[in-house]
Design a protein that fits this description.
With about 100 residues, this protein is of the alpha+beta class. The chain contains four helices and three strands. It has a three-stranded mixed beta sheet with strand order 1-3-2, covered by helices on one side. Helix 1 crosses helix 2 and helix 2 crosses helix 4.
């Protein structure tokens, strides 16, 4: 699959999850990121590492949901963990898989 198509499909997944979670995205970018997989701002800006285009789609969904939930919960406390589990089930398994992949 070509790079442009991969980006389009990834962005479509982000917008689908945003719709499910009722998150309004202001800007969405896929770009090189040195030290993290993604970032978000309270203004509705999302950035995802272009390296996510090369990981398993379930692992990428983990990163997408992780960031989108930060629009509601700014930390990784009990509520955030509960929401992650509600949307992704055993999200810790996906998190562990992501940690074996370097940014």
């Amino acid at each position: 699959m070509n790079a442009v198509r991969e980006r389009e499909l990834f962005k479509a997944r982000v917008f689908e999850w945003a719709r499910k979670l009722n998150v309004n995205i202001r800007t969405l970018a896929i770009r090189p990121m040195r030290n993290k997989w993604a970032s978000c701002s309270t203004a509705g800006n999302l950035n995802f590492s272009d390296e996510l285009l090369d990981v398993d789609s379930k692992v990428a969904d983990y990163v997408i949901v992780h960031e989108l939930l930060h629009f509601f919960v700014p930390n990784h406390g009990k509520l955030w963990k509960s929401l992650m589990r509600a949307h992704l089930g055993d999200y810790e398994r996906l998190e562990a898989k992501l940690q074996t992949t370097e940014t």
